[in-house]
Amino acid sequence: MNSSSSANGLPLWPLPLLAGLLPALATLIALQLSIRLDLIPACNPFFEGCVSVSRAARHDLPNTVFRAVVLPAAALQGLTWMLCRTWLVELGAPRERWLRHLAWIGVTAAVFLVLYGAFLGTEGRAYRLLRHYGTAVYFGFTCISILITGDAIHRVARYRPALTRTRLDLALLALVTALLLAGLINLFVAPLFDAETKDRIQNVAEWWGAAILSIVFLLLAWLWRRTNFRARFGVE
């Protein structure tokens, strides 16, 4: 399969669209199921921080649904980052060191999302560590992938009217800044409070961080569609 920005071929924008929508849907469905099954209190975790993403999808049916949707979504995210480098090069982005490593960084993030999803709901210290590092590496490496992509788009935006009309290059950089801010709040602000308040602050940051990641993939889908990024099958 070859990628192309020509008018022929299979449109690729549904890949990042599903990569962003599926985790969001899985999380929200797991949240509602957990509330209905009285596994967690009824609340709005985006503002009240009453429950973490992991706890909302940790047990019984919510856990099964969450893993069934998130694991394929992780594969789609990895595929999106692999194709993203090709798309950026076709737009005219310089083939610098970080861009050359974009696919590997993005695939690493996807692998650790699989690790997180696979062990969510298991018990024991080793499994908790695997879930913890799965989350940390996933968020960290995805942030790096967004930074590389946002910087490359910013470099070519002035030559591409499809990118300059809405300045989504700046939107991507703003979103990764918000992700980094959420991480800093988790690390440095939350520990200043008592245990209950700390947990709530960290939970709020986690929910908003997950939402921002989904938005990033939706923006990529919009950009791929606007620049007519397609796949061609066969050999030229």
Can you describe this structure?
It is a single chain. This protein has 236 residues and is mainly α. It is built from 10 helices and 3 strands. The chain has a 3-stranded antiparallel sheet. The mean pLDDT is 85.
Low-pLDDT segments: none
- How are helices and strands ordered from N to C? EEHHHHHHHHHHE
> What percent of residues are in strands?
under 5%
Oligomer: single chain
What is the number of E strands?
Answer: 3
Can you give me a brief rundown of this structure?
With 236 residues, the chain is mostly helical.
Secondary-structure map:
Elements: E1 2-4, E2 10-11, H1 14-36, H2 45-48, H3 53-56, H4 60-91, H5 97-100, H6 102-119, H7 125-156, H8 161-164, H9 168-189, H10 195-226, E3 230-232
Antiparallel strand pairs: 1-3, 2-3
Helix pairs in contact: 1-4, 1-10, 4-6, 4-7, 6-7, 7-9, 9-10
List keywords for this structure.
globular; single chain; mainly alpha; three-stranded antiparallel beta sheet; 236 residues
